[in-house]
Amino acid sequence: MSDVVERTLSVLPGLLRQHEPGAVPGGAGGPGRVSATSRLGSLIRSITALTSKHEEEKLIQQELTSLKATVSAPTTTLRLMKECMVRLIYCEMLGYESSFGYIHAIKLAQQGNLLEKRVGYLAVSLFLHENDELLLLLVNTVVKDLQSTNLVEVCMALTVVSQIFPREMIPAVLPLIEDKLQHSKEIIRRKAVQALYKFYLIAPNQVQHIHDKFRKALCDRDAGVMAASLHIYLQMIKENSSGYDLTGSFVTILKQVVGGKLPIDFNYHSVPAPWLQIQLLRILGLLGKDDPRTSELMYDVLDESLRRAEINHNITYAILFECVQTVYTIHPKSELLEKAAKCIGKFVLSPKINLKYLGLKALTYVIQQDPNLALQHQMTIIECLDHPDPIIKRETLELLYRITNGHNVIVIVQKMLDYLKESKEEYAIINLVGKIAELAEKYPFIFLKLWSQSSGKCDVVHPDIPNNFLRLLAEGFDDGKEDDQLRVYAVKSYLTLLEEEDALYPQKFLQVMSWVLGEYSSLVTDVDPEVILAKLHSLLKKTFVTSETKVWIMAAVTKIASHTSHSKTVDKLIQEFSNSLDTCMRQFAFELKHLCEDKALMKNLLPFDASCTDMVVDASLSFLDGFVSEGLGRGAAPYKPHHQRQEEKLSQEKALNFEPYGLSFAASVSSSGITGRQSPTGLSFGSDMSGNSGETGHKETNTLKLEGVHKLWGKEGYLPKKENKVGKENEPQTVSCGSLLARQVGDPPASRSDQVASLSEEDKEKQQLASTLFIGLGSSAGVSLLGKADTATQKFKRKSKINETRNSEEASDFQNSASSDFGPLLDTVPINLEDCEGNIHTRLRKVSLCSSDIVEDNLAFETPQSLKKSGLDDRLSDSRLSQSSLFADSNIEIFLPSPSAHCESASKIPLVPSLPEELQQLTHSEVVELCQSDALALYLCKVWTDDSLLLSVFVSNKTNSALNAVNLMFEEAEHFQILESPTYQFPVIEAQSVERCEKCVWMDKICTQGILSGSINYQSEMDTRLEFSVTLSLLDFIRPMAMTTEDFGKLWLSLSNDVKQNIRMSRSQDSLSAALNTLQQKLKLHIVDIIGNEGILACQLLPSVPCLLHCRTHSGMLALWFRSPCSALPDGLLYQCQKVMEES
Amino acid sequence: MINAILVFNNHGKPRLVRFYQHLAEEVQQQIIRETFHLVLKRDDHICNFLECGSLFGGSDYKLIYRHYATLYFVFCVDSSESELGILDLIQVFVETLDKCFENVCELDLIFHMDKVHHILQEVVIGGMVLETNMNEIVAQVEAQSKLEKAEGGLSAAPSRAVSAVKNINLPEIPRNINIGDINIKVPNLSQFM
């Protein structure tokens, strides 16, 4: 009765206010409460009346506009504002943004009375996110409310803090919240703990100092507060389980809870505080993991928990499940494990699906520790496989995946594929296909068999699978015999599959099939290749085969044809496809035809089982050299690459250079071309010296690797392979593991059959399935189920040999190429020396020290002959090492000390420092003063020796007494390296005398200019220290490099880093030779050759990094083209060139 | 932790949306839509747990849902929550709503959105379960509305006034836990400093 009165009461005001007769919507018990927020009510009513999404959008936009006007109007009362907020929350929930109202929500929280404040806070916590700047405006309100005497306000403030709070403002409220931990009301304490938990999550170090307060909260007399503090502890223990010695406390709490010491009020379905128990069990699990000592403490209480949880209710199972997980996580105790296993049984066998699901989950969790458990429940698991709920099925498959072994893998993958066929959820498919791929890698046999049965889904989802598989097959395993068994098995099973005339296979599968047949069909001796060819041929004619697959098949045909002497099918095929409309097919047919005419070439081209051999591609196309030189000899124009032709077109000068470059050059081409082809690495250098055709070499002349199987279908047919794997063809194939396995699966287990005779057919099937699924699970039961225990599991490991061999091959390539590059250099030395005889001493001049000034002398020519030779020798012996390390772009680390050791040879010289005799003959700078003090003066002279930059430092003692222990020290510089030690000690410098020391410097990292600083200290009355610095430029370390045109050509092709630049020539040096002379003088480049309007120059960065330069002039521009093994060197030199050309 | 609590009706209309991690508006709507589709196609007799895939950007998340007449209550949680525990928490939440609204129905959720949110705030705060004791939750809600009514006046919500009067003498529930003998050791405080 009172109910009716109440309803009438509540309906009345609503009706009165709305003036809308009949506006009360129908609904049991609902209508009375509609009135409270009438505008929201009308909004909702009009939305429900709408039919389309579009209309809804329109209506809400309208609503939002009017709301916007209302909230920003100054006359809006807080009460109205509150109503607006509720409407805004509703709009936001439907997905319409209402950011204009956010600030008003904050205002409402600040200004409103309790009711309005509450809505304001709620709106804030719903609208804003953690990093929103508007949140800062809320901080003051929160602080005010925390200090309020009204409990509700405090509560609201704490609630909003634990939902959302700006991290950087934590210090502002932290003390207030800490105070609240002592509040008399437990709800306040609880919320304060929750707020602190939030702080711990977003800024753990800010609450570090109050850890003992957490502890107090844990000991709070109110269980709710204690429960709240568990959140914090769970989080902290998750992060670091070892730091907390609280296991005893947690165990005691759990004991009390389980023992029913809590007030009856905490019971839920007569279970004492179940969520608290769950939380505690989780914490214990984390604490006891891998810790026998703490685990010991909790055995009792876990046992108690397992025992107590008997009432048949959901929540007891929740506790049981948690218990089981904890028991299996902590240090094991057999009694407990036994009980836990029983519990899992209860779950798995439960008719409630939720429990079954959890049971399966638990099984999955424990299966690795205890595979027997799965055996106990095998029948249930089999049933779950056919469960209507996909979630259960998926969990079952996950479980099966964990117990996969060599015996049951086929059945399990089969089940997975069945699931794949039905499933539509993308996430599930991806997950499962990943698992199948993983299994396939582990157990390749199953793959061959199963692929055919899988639907097309597999190829859509995971294109990687076939590639991985083929790679696996091609690279093989540790054991060569197993490889071949696998391959033979693959070929045979595919042939059987092809027998079925009208079977439709996925394209990817056909591709795999044809690849395997092409590659390994010759391993199968008892099948006529003609048969295979016929099958492939018929496949080619099928309409469902895509053109991509056709290419795969065609390649397979080509490969098989290379093993057979003569095949009618091939002839027929060639005939058929030679006039195919598909150009690709036509080309393949054409190639096949030509290859068939030359069997020897074909065999060479398609060696057996060479899919993993790395192919060495001769990017310089040196095998065409003979052809090219012949053509050139007949007067053909040299090849020019596209960009160069365009450049020339632009310059619109002389159209083409029809002149051949002299006879000697043509001869050299042909000779080197021939040797190139026979070079052991397959890497040879076209030595076309025109500089034009030098460009034909690819940038990457070091071996282009075709890795993996897929790429095989690229340019495979064009290059001879150097290394053939032999000795695999003749191994006889008798037993195939795979077929054995297949037989196992097919046969029903004999010994089992008498036991199952009484069972129904369906059950029998299931039993069979079970026996195939659970074999090999470690226990005797598994074996007896099968009745056969003879087969060993086939596990294959992918071998990693491939990479190693590849690396070593690469290394040897470098060695070879390096030695072949530098070999001829030795021969050329005398010639060059003769050349420069005339220049010697003619331009001797001293240059200033400052290295931005250019050294004008061609100093290499001034080097005494003996020195030069020895230097070159050094370089040669060095060349292999430096070359290879340079290719890896590292800096040179290995040095041979110069034989002409002038380092650190201190000797006495007069007070005015000058170089000693032997150094005077070398090019050197003037002696300049570095620094000076009362007692000392430091001078420096740079000497550009052939193999290093020699810094000659003079220390002159200006005093009238001897100076003792003068230490010279160079600091470590980023770019430079001082050979031997960077320090030198003069034991004594006599009064009024000069001592000298020398340091050899190399450039370690390339830079255009760098500073080498150092200091000198000496003992007079006190320790005195002088600092100095020397500027060194790149040019200090550049030396000319003498070589012949041919060597230049070879080296040019072997270098990979190039830089091109056109620079304008000034009028004074409009001819090429003038420009080159400038470069020769100022940059110390060696002019190798000048032909027409092109010139080639060479230099090296000490100790032996070559850099080659090709110059060409056209219409007042000088086209510079640098190449070097080091990437930074061309850039540096280019910069210097530009500077030099601008200056002159 | 609980990442989101979604309530929608049989047609996918959202009735209560609460995310505990910040997500863009569009993402939220997408999650609501996809969750609805996932849940809708499951009939009532199969299990209440669902893996939601990459919906939340990780594989760790699960949907735990219950279906009541016209409404789906979906909790999206990560692996640190107990599935069955959450399932019963939904029950607690719904029962609490029922107590607060007396025979709760979909309309109550629509028209008293703010109140529903306030009740939820007493159960779950910032993604963590705060209180699972139904009586306590109801008491908190009532106590707050009682105080507010003192300010807001009776006219605002007569029905609530009536129910408040009914429950005005709600006894203070003793909640003391006897932990006299727990005696927590504090051996080395330094770890916690």
Short structural description:
Chain A is of the alpha+beta class and 1144 residues long. Chain A contains 46 helices and 18 strands.
The two chains with the largest interface, and their residue counts, are: A-B, 110 and 89 residues
Cα radius of gyration of chain B in angstroms: 19 Å
Average pLDDT of chain A = 71
> H/E order of the elements of chain B?
EEHEEEHHHEEHH
CATH topology of chain B: Beta-Lactamase
DSSP helix fraction of chain A: 40-55%
* CA distance, first residue to last residue of chain A: 113 Å
Share of helical residues of chain B: 40-55%
Give your account of this protein's structure.
The complex is a heterodimer of chains A (about 1150) and B (about 190). By secondary structure, chain A is an alpha+beta fold. Chain B is of the alpha+beta class and about 190 residues long. Chain B has one domain (about 1-150): 2-Layer Sandwich (Beta-Lactamase), CATH 3.30.450.60. Chain B has helices at about 25-40, 85-100, 105-110, 115-125, 135-150, 160-165, and strands at about 1-10, 15-20, 50, 60-70, 70-75, 125, 130. A five-stranded antiparallel sheet of chain B has the order 2-1-5-4-3, with helices on both faces. In chain B, strand 4 and strand 5 form a beta hairpin. In chain B, helix 2 (about 85-100) packs parallel to helix 5 and helix 4 (about 115-125) crosses helix 5. The longest helix of chain B is centred in the middle third of the chain and has 19 residues, at about 85-100. Chain B is globular, with a radius of gyration of 19 Å. Mean pLDDT of chain B is about 75; it is low at about 155-193. At the A-B interface, helix 1, helix 2, helix 4, helix 6 and helix 8 of A face strand 2, helix 1, strand 3, helix 2 and helix 3 of B.
